Model the fold of this input.
Amino acid sequence: MKQNNSMTAHAVLTAAWIVVALYLGFVYAPNEAAQGNAYRIMYVHVPSAWSALVAYTVIFIGSVGYIWKRSQRYDDLANAAGEVGFVFCCCLLITGPLWAKPIWGVWWVWDPRTTLTFILWLLFVAYVLLRGFFVNPSRAALLAAVVGIIGFVDVPIDYMAIRWWRTQHPQPVIMGGPDSGLPPKMLLAFLVSAGAFLCLFFYLLRLRMSMLATRREASRLRREFEDEAQDRPAAQRL
Amino acid sequence: MRSLSVIWTLFEKDLRLEWRQRETLAAVCVFGVLVVFLFNFAFQPGGEESLRLLPGLLWIAFAFAGILGFNRSFAAERENGCLEGLRLTPVDPGLIYLAKALSNFVFLAVAEVVIVFAVSLWYNFSFLPSLKWFACVVFFGTLGYVAVGVTFAGVAANTRMREVMLPVLQFPVIIPIFIGAIEATSSALRGDSPAQFLSWVKLLIGFSIIFLVLSFLLFEYVLEE
Done:
């Protein structure tokens, strides 16, 4: 019951926070000088990126935690973070081109950040697919943990390699990131949006984790019930 | 000392298995050469252009051939409970990983020689002038590729559709190897001075070391029942 109450509170908080963030993002924050209204997608795009990166870190923490402590909760944590992170990464990859088209004139540029985002998305896809394809569920947690750790270690190396690669082939200069000095109103709207996204992320993470625990409990009960039914003598069953 | 003899014994076992069946090597070599063959129809490279396309062509052929080999090497272990046998041997699982990596490295290296020979023949390109540096780049690139591939093949062996699962896991992770190896290969083949591509070779070496050590430590959990 206590768990339920805290989940409900978290849900209400998230919903309210999102409403505030929408107001600040669409009404309160002024138009940007060069981009007009188009820049407002930043309030969705950048927080999605943050949430995806947080999800990635959570997968790593869950993976290391599982190998270390062998507690099912760590595995659930990594599993849930993989699924939720995948959603946020999709959001990031969808809003990116939508923003790029009016501002850069193209849907996609293979610059270091977009390339890395795409690799991150592929890693999420691989992780979620892997979770779905295990033959023997009892070994899934350990194997997924191994992949989670290798994937996490790989990302900084990917980033370094791509940076070197792209500096060798100069690209058209792209506007400095949104964090190159935001006016106060925009900064406020941005920080509130980022908070709303992170709040939503952790809500979905908790929801997913409790669903995984419930599912395991249900299948345990079903097994127990079936065993009991088999043990009972035939006469009693009638 | 004992570690080395364990690795050698396991490596010898893989070699002997391969010698008797001759399946993996044949499949990997033929597949790699087929990629090169198809590439010819896709891009019809000739003369100067071929020098620009060759590094990418080579590494795509190596990558696909490698994936095929990694899958095969664990498919053989699944038959007759061989993997359980390996698991029960009283040796450090990390050594099993190193032995597997060694045998896969050797198989892929043989396939690479065949592929390079085919490329050299069909595209009228001589690798001899830059052979030393080219071999060096291919060595470390392959090492990093195998380091990750063997671990993921061990993971993928536990899934349905493992033939699909392995490349899905492998390709995003080996992007640094892919970028580094292709850049260094084209630089070496152009005859640049080593200083110009040595930083890429260092990246390949660094990647190989990181993932060899990481996999050595983690392979225990890949095998664990």
Observations:
- DSSP finds nine helices and no strands in chain B.
- The first helix of chain B runs from residue 2 to 21.
